[in-house]
Amino acid sequence: MLKIMKSLSFVVLLFMALGALVPVFAQEPRHPAAANSSPAVAAQPGYLIQPGDILTIAVWKEKDLEADVLVLPDGTLSFPLVGDIQAAGRTVPQIRQEVVARLAKYMPNPVVTVAVKQIQGNVIYVIGDVNKPGAFVANSYLDVMQALSLAGGMTPFAADNSIKILRRVNGRETAIRFKYGQVEDGEHLAQDIILQAGDVVVVP
Fold it and tell me: 20 to 30 A from 180, CA-CA: which of 43, 95, 147, 148?
């Protein structure tokens, strides 16, 4: 009888142990990328090349086809065999694709690399009642609050709820209103837009 009870106790303990393990094995495996993903670190859209930027273009095994090229004020760049192409307003992959397409007329399957060497064209201007007005090269995405910070903040006399962002679109200038007090209080945060090259933040 004692042996039977010991056997039953062993079986009960075995089932309890298995029951504790089942939820562990039943969990859906997590992909490493999913574990590290977060809305806060979502990828930004590709950087759009601006006049004044410097790109490095190189063709594999072609020493004569490797150079640093400047994006001219009209938005174009020049490269041997490729000629003039529109660069401003386009991403690096788009420019690379066009360079490959043009070089394919002269060589089979050209291997081309295009990289941004210097960002000089992505300039934001902050003027008016700020402590350090001027032009600022944005090496990353810059919103209005960040631009004001780069300009040393506003003076005590600034009309912080009457700020405007002047933006030229297709040759026409538009004014975007920005109320600093609302954003500072955590309200209407959509006003804190990402600035574009050439935007002028006016603080009256």
Answer: 43
